[in-house]
Specification:
The chain is of the alpha+beta class. It is 27% helix and 36% strand. It contains four helices and eight strands, in the order βαβββαββαβαβ. It starts with a strand and ends with a strand.
Length: 162
């Protein structure tokens, strides 16, 4: 399904912990919104719009997608659930930021997905486990696959209307 995405902000200001990865690779973060044709509900995307000069996507050939499913009449998480998602992301960034890049986050239609690109699956999973070791259980699924050309990210970016 092809989505029409509309860029709604040229830059997104991040908290200190989320900025740790941005400081190493991402120049500008942005948001975009897609309205689902069937439901009329929106999906909100936060994505790395531009990277620092010299950044090589080939250094991060593995795509890791974390999926958090929830139930909501509106398709968006409750305030408490969103705060838990943000807390988990902050914990992850403090650990995995040195070995991966958070490239895309989508929220809507009863799911949040974080798309990371990592150097290796083993290293990412080890750091993820370290980051979440003392945290409450977060209901996430983890999907990892090679994506050396960043097809998932590039496919998303090509659909953003600026």
């Amino acid at each position: 399904m092809k989505r029409n995405l509309t860029l709604i902000s040229g830059a997104l200001f991040l908290g200190a912990s989320a900025a740790s990865v941005a400081a190493t690779a991402v120049d500008v973060w942005a948001t975009a919104v897609s309205t689902q044709a069937v439901t009329g509900r929106q999906v909100i995307f936060r994505f790395a719009k531009t990277f620092h000069q010299g950044f090589q996507t080939s250094d991060f050939p593995l795509r890791v997608i974390l999926v958090w499913q929830y139930q909501s009449e509106s398709g968006m998480p409750s305030t408490a659930e969103r705060e838990d998602m943000d807390r988990m992301e902050d914990l992850l960034q403090s650990y995995v930021g040195s070995s991966s890049i958070l490239a895309l986050v989508s929220t809507g239609e009863n799911m949040r997905e974080w798309v990371f690109y990592a150097r290796s699956e083993e290293q990412f999973l080890m750091l993820l486990n370290m980051a979440l070791a003392d945290a409450p259980h977060f209901p996430i699924e983890i999907h990892a696959a090679p994506d050396p050309d960043w097809f998932t990210y590039e496919g998303f970016r090509s659909g953003v209307i600026e």
